[in-house]
């Protein structure tokens, strides 16, 4: 018998001073049995930090060619493709051909991913944004993960603060953008 997905609920207050986004989100996130808590937390953070109209989680493993998170614009064109972890260069090549903007959120050291972007044949590789979240920060959030979660997130001057159960965790995501990140 196959294992089924686990459903997590998130109530997240967003105060993103850097982007001028102030909202409350109610998310239901299915975790596939093969998905780690670290990946799940990174996926949720990416969804919140990229929040905009029309942004949604993908179908997961039921459609492996789709983005984990994406936003569409007119006529079903992909405006934003968000990938998680360390996607293969071939996947990023296809994504950058299909989407106006591509970014990757990783909870691992980004050096190998950046090396792939610099050396592999990837369409518009110099335009792919890589957001590296500190592994210890992600691990701390994963330890606090429950089936029902209430987070308050503040981003100001590039620093991210996430409050869970009256405890605030802090990190500064490293953002690698464009050609400068690849050199």
Question: Please, could you describe this protein's structure?
Answer:
The protein has 183 residues and is α/β, with parallel strands linked by helices. 25% of the residues lie in helices and 39% in strands. It contains five helices and eleven strands; from the N terminus they run ββαβββαβαβαββββα. Helix 1 (37-49) crosses helix 4. It starts with 5 loop residues before the first strand and ends with a helix. The relative contact order is 0.17.
Key attributes of the depicted protein:
alpha/beta; 39% strand; 183 residues; globular; Restriction endonuclease-like alpha-beta roll fold; 25% helix
Summarize the structure.
The protein is of the alpha/beta class and 183 residues long. The chain has a single domain (17-182), classed as Restriction endonuclease-like alpha-beta roll domain (Restriction endonuclease-like alpha-beta roll fold, Roll). The protein has helices spanning 37-49, 89-98, 111-119, 135-143, 178-182; strands spanning 6-16, 21-31, 55-57, 69-72, 78-84, 99-106, 129-132, 148-156, 159-164, 167-171, 174-176.
Beta-strand share of residues: 35-45%
Number of helical segments?
A: 5
The domain count comes to 1
CATH top level? Answer: Alpha Beta
Any chance you could write out the topology, listing elements then pairs?
Blueprint: E1 6-16, E2 21-31, H1 37-49, E3 55-57, E4 69-72, E5 78-84, H2 89-98, E6 99-106, H3 111-119, E7 129-132, H4 135-143, E8 148-156, E9 159-164, E10 167-171, E11 174-176, H5 178-182
Parallel strand pairs: 1-8, 5-6, 6-7
Antiparallel strand pairs: 1-2, 3-4, 4-5, 7-11, 8-9, 9-10
């Amino acid at each position: 018998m196959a294992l089924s997905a686990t459903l997590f609920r998130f109530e997240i207050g967003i105060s993103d001073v850097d982007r001028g986004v102030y909202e409350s989100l109610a998310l239901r996130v299915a975790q596939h049995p093969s998905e780690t808590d670290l990946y799940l937390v990174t996926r949720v953070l990416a969804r919140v930090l990229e929040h905009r109209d029309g942004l949604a989680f993908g179908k997961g493993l039921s459609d492996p060619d789709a983005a984990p998170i994406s936003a569409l614009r007119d006529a079903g064109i992909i405006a934003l493709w968000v990938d998680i972890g360390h996607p293969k260069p071939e996947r990023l090549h296809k994504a950058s051909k299909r989407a106006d903007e591509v970014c990757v959120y990783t909870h691992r050291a980004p050096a190998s991913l950046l090396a792939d972007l610099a050396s592999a044949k990837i369409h518009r590789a110099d335009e792919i944004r890589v957001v590296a979240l500190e592994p210890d920060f992600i691990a701390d959030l994963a330890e606090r993960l429950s089936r029902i979660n209430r987070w308050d997130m503040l981003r100001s001057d590039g620093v991210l603060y996430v409050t869970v159960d009256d405890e605030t965790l802090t990190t500064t995501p490293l953002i690698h953008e464009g050609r400068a990140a690849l050199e």
